[in-house]
Specification:
- This protein is α/β, with parallel strands linked by helices.
- It has a domain of about 230 residues: 3-Layer(aba) Sandwich (Rossmann fold).
- It contains 13 helices and 13 strands.
- The strands form four sheets. It has a seven-stranded parallel sheet, sandwiched between helices.
- Strand 2, helix 2 and strand 3 form a beta-alpha-beta unit.
- It is globular and about 55 Å long.
- Bound molecules: nicotinamide-adenine-dinucleotide and thymidine-5'-diphosphate.
- The site of nicotinamide-adenine-dinucleotide has 31 residues, from helix 1, strand 2, helix 5 and strand 5.
Amino acid sequence: MITALVTGGCGFIGTNLIRLILESTHDWKVINLDLLTYAGNLENTLGLEQDYPGRYIFVKGDIADPEMVNRVFQEHGLDVILNLAAESHVDRSIEDAGVFIRTNVMGVQVLLDAALKYKVQRFVQISTDEVYGSLGPQGRFNEAMPLAPNSPYSASKAAADLLIRSYIKTYGLDAVITRCSNNYGPFQFPEKLIPLIVVNAHEDKELPVYGDGKNVRDWIFVEDHCRGIITAARSGVSGEIYNMGGDAEKENIEIVSSILDYLHKPHSLIRYVKDRPGHDFRYAMDYSKIEAEQGWRPRVNFDDGLKRTIDWYLEHKSWWQRIRTGDYLEYYERMYGGR
Ligand code: NAD
Ligand code: TYD
């Protein structure tokens, strides 16, 4: 049995990853360590203890708390760490960078020290294309490109990537880093573009589009990313970085329009708002390395994935209605109230 620690397993990608691991393997056991911030929802993993007896354990805790982390490593005899715990929203990092540094940098240091101390076989860091900065209209990011993060979020993720590099070089830690483009799919918190537009459009609320709506992201269905994470954990080469992307470059406005059309809602709901400061223009990923070495490539076509995602939100209204409360509503008002 391989015992994997998945951190941030009650968030968007973590939830999808844990479900995929439990469904697609027989010999993996998952320990989910999650602080349950505003973005973590225990409901996402409800029933997994019963559905996969002996193969799933939830622990509430903070990756930046060394005592807690050491206890988890000691109790569970971990083989692999899959670190997804993070503050993940660029706009929030612009408001307050502190918690991003604490979780995304200091939390990683705590996990790395524990990984060394308890001699885990492999550390997998889930990083992002945003560490490379922004592209012009041409070209794609490859793994050899320099790090040039532009937001406090991406800077905190780049800092973690460099810290991991130093642990590999200095202490001989076995680690791989995956860098993926924008994910979409079930369980994404409705503050990110696609779920925000789906739920707002469904409720006939205005749809905030930053700037001229022409910024480009390379969208990947979350299941494809999760399959790549498992591949990197199993057969990635220590010390290597693996880019993943979805082959689906879209301008934001194209996505908003597709969602409106699918929901039969009027385009008059679109509201162009003040641009995000330091807004990266374009991301696009060259994933030829993981394709050549590991045989991974994205499988889900964007139009199909988008429909599946919209349908999921329509079928799970109570899920998003319950989480759009308290802190989130205050955030939303601060974000869009004055624009
Ligand atoms: P998310 O915000 O949906 O989930 C983050 C999870 O981490 C939540 O469950 C939260 O409770 C937990 N968490 C936060 N701080 C914690 C702490 N100190 N200790 C323990 N748990 C903590 O994020 P996501 O979109 O699922 O992203 C997961 C990872 O993937 C992140 O590292 C992110 O940088 C990376 N990533 C995301 C995308 C994307 O498009 N969403 C793309 C590439 C990489
Ligand atoms: P987001 O989902 O926040 O991901 P990221 O900033 O990490 O790429 O945003 C995706 C794109 O959509 C980005 O160009 C910003 C834009 N955007 C809007 O235009 N309106 C919104 O309400 C949000 C949340 C994002």
